Amino acid sequence: MDQNRITINGHAYEFTPGQTILEVAQQNLIDIPNLCHLKGTRATGACRVCIVELEESWGRKIVSSCSAPAKNGMIVHTESPKIVAYRKFYIGLMLDSGNHNCDIGARADESWTDFQISAMENDQKEELCPVWGDCELQALAYRYQVKGRVSGRHREAVTLPIEGDNPFIIRDMSRCILCGRCVAACNEVQVNQAIDFGFRGTKEQIIAGTGTTLMNSACVFCGECVQVCPVGALVEKKALGKGRPWEVTKIRTTCPYCGVGCQQLLHVKNDTIVKVTGVEDGAPNQGRLCVKGRFGYDFIYSDKRLKTPLIREKDGFREASWEEALTLVADTFTRIIDESGPDALAGVSCARSINEDSYQMQKLFRAVFKTNNIDHCART
Amino acid sequence: MTNSFNEFAKAKMLLVIGSNMTEAHPVAATFVKNAVQKGATLIVADPRKHKLVDFAHTHLPLKVGSDVALLNGLMHVLIQEDLYDSEFVETCCEGFDVLKQTVASYPPEKAGEISGIDPELIRQTARLLASVKPVMVCYTLGITEHTSGKNNVMSIANLQMLLGNMGVPCGGVNPLRGQNNVQGACDMGALPNVFPGYQPVGDLSARQKFENAWGVDRLPEKNGLMIPEMMEGLVDKMVRGFYIFGENLANTEPDIRKVEHELASAEFLVVQDIFENETTRFAHVVLPAAAWSENDGTFTNSERRVSRVRTASPAPGEARPNWWIFREIARRMGHTWESDSAKDLWDNEISVLAPNLAGIKYHRIENDGLQWPCPTESHPGTPILHLEGRFTKGKGSFMPVEWTPAAEVPDDDYPFVLSTGRRLYHYHTRTQTGNCEGLNDMLGEETADISAADAQKLNIDQNEMIRVKSRRGEVTVKARITHEVPEGLVWMAFHFREGNANWLTNPVYDPDTLTAEYKACAVSLEKIA
Ligand code: SF4
Ligand code: SF4
Ligand code: SF4
């Protein structure tokens, strides 16, 4: 009886053998903070934020919940005073490790709220982190009210120039907390093998290729690393300055390119897509996208779009109303059918447009024109 | 696809043939690579050493257009060495004797001579395929874009039936569809021989069903024309009115000169698109359409999953949803159609008329889509077809086929094989990707990919402008010398007007499917200076 039960914060939960403590907690909507865990990849234990306290017969011990397997009879505390104290310390260290200019530590004299207000006012300033308000580290600093600048230590990475020689991804390693999620995303999820940990020791850093830029590495700009980065070290260039997280509506849709049919979340502000991310756990792509799906959305806003019906006139086209254009089409088709029969008409439907459009076009040809001369690029 | 994308990552063995997956279906390729990381064996059969080959246990660098010979050779070994699944063949298949007879004349030596693969490697690969169960086979246009396209597809099905890999998770035959909604356009009956849901137009009861549903009489019973026939009809005036919706035929069809002559011959051409392009130049009327994310609807992916597409932005100017445009034309020709949204069309017409889609309604696909067949509203959808060997038509039939060479093979005047395809950063003729910030920076022009050996022979440097000629035309294009391409092969794409491979490709077609032979024609290479 009750072979697979653990107790978390005083409540008992069932688990499946093989699950980690973190997985059991997440399944039961218990929020254990974590910054390096990435579903489906090997646990690294790099951030140490997911620590929990276990009650053992001999006393208490601290483990990383992302790697410790759940065991029958375990008693787990996720927010004990000791855990909270350690967690604050680790969060503080991470804030100190780079250019986290949203933290309150450097301005210990100001209150948290004042800082928030001044940061919002200064949103356009270049030096403010572009993911302000959408950062997992910042959110934890807020949740645990961490004041940074405890160690006074600065890592070398802080002086690194921002890398932006590619059109899609800005890499600012001065904000990297070395959580390793991007490395797991690139090597274990997308398997593009473009980035890795480099320069061991205090100079440790995420490097592209053998220490070059993404542009010169094996990177294919799938953007998976950006999607998983908890902080502002990796951001989408095209989305910069286009909308804050609380200003956008997220609309789920399907990618317009290849036959995989990846599920996307369109981040929309003022009727404009400002960014695209993958739908985590959505079928079929499980959150993944490729460069076209992630960055190929803005063609719809091109000023070269066709905006009005056009009718040929001598060598060029003139603009026309729908009424005029559609009447011309209907009249001409009717005349051709009268003169030469319905099979003198033929049509090609679009393999990129929605089902409902193709259905409607074949219905027009069959039910109205009375011909089966309807096809599409089925074979390409 | 008979199976689903999520099975790729769990597969024990995968055979990927004629599919440059990391560029054409990148996310699908990630699942294949995940499987390899977890210990799966990957076999890649492709003339080119593309990226996926880096992950492969075995690469079969077959000659362009030799797929049937290679596959028959593999089956020859499987039968000769008694490695095939005789139980599955006996209980679930018919026609084994004919298959046996056909592949008997493809011993590895002969298959090897045609395909350029070492006979011993063919034997080893056959044994490898038989050593694990199930094996998942994935293919793309490298299989279908040949004059023998249909035969290539049947060979793959033969192989999977022989190995007993049908109707099981992580097995099956899995064509990755090129465009996002090719599957859907077929399902919707945008084909000359079937109504929505593959109900034949030649079938009286099907016609009656649609006559009742649409409130019309005398639906045409004769199969219609396929695209190449329509195009030829423009020249001989059998086709007088031509309506092109969303396809840039002037760049995507083989032999651009011929295509443009055909389009220019059209008496009345209507083009409905989101941009002006090479095809709209020939139009008499251009109709501006709403684009992806400017209207609601559904797409159906390669694994038969119907997923929602939603509105994020208003269409620019006067642009309107395509279904609205068709409805307005119908109205002007005396037909009033009730459905007034994509949801109406799906819930009240499509899902009512196509039995495989009957259980799919908009309210059921708010989140993840559903995979057809989905006959009722309580049906969970079908991730895997032919489960437990139950084929739709009872037993699965072997359809043995003979190898036939490409219609045009190299000779003294045109000594190279040209094969074509797609690259990662663009999509077809760039109607979409060419108008996105950044993608042109990643790839700004066509290249002709050639081997280092050929470059050396012809004294061509990396990035040098060269001339590629075929019997149909010539282009001036940058040479890209790469280890991916074997000697004797030139590989190009059709994303740009300049240097587009379709100035060169051969307008010859598979006799049944009328798919063009984009993957093989003969060309010559010339240094310009
Ligand atoms: S964009 Fe994709 S390929 Fe490039 S580093 Fe990130 S995860 Fe790797
Ligand atoms: S770049 Fe982002 S995801 Fe990668 S290690 Fe640094 S903080 Fe983590
Ligand atoms: S994101 Fe990439 S792989 Fe996914 S459907 Fe779009 S084009 Fe295909």
What does this structure look like?
The complex is a heterodimer of chains A (380) and B (529). Chain A is of the alpha+beta class and 380 residues long. Chain A folds into four domains: 5-79, Ubiquitin-like (UB roll) (Roll); 162-237, Alpha-Beta Plaits; 245-301, N-terminal domain of TfIIb (Single Sheet), CATH 2.20.25; 310-376, no CATH class. Chain A contains nine helices and 16 strands. In chain A, a hairpin with a 2-residue loop joins strand 1 (5-8) and strand 2. The model of chain A is unreliable at 105-112 and 118-125 (pLDDT under 50). Chain B has 529 residues and is of the alpha/beta class. Chain B folds into three domains: 5-176, Dimethylsulfoxide Reductase, domain 2 (3-Layer(aba) Sandwich), CATH 3.40.228; 182-378, Rossmann fold (3-Layer(aba) Sandwich), CATH 3.40.50; 416-527, Barwin-like endoglucanases. In chain B, strand 18 and strand 19 form a beta hairpin. In chain B, helix 4 (67-80) runs antiparallel to helix 7 (108-115), helix 4 (67-80) packs across helix 8 and helix 7 (108-115) packs across helix 8. The mean pLDDT of chain B is 90. Chains A and B meet through strand 10, strand 11, helix 7, strand 13 and helix 8 of A and helix 3, helix 11, helix 13, strand 9 and strand 10 of B. Strand 15 of chain A pairs parallel with strand 9 of chain B. Bound molecules: iron/sulfur cluster (3 copies). One iron/sulfur cluster (SF4) sits between chains A (255, 257-258, 260-262, 285, 289-290, 292-293) and B (25-27).
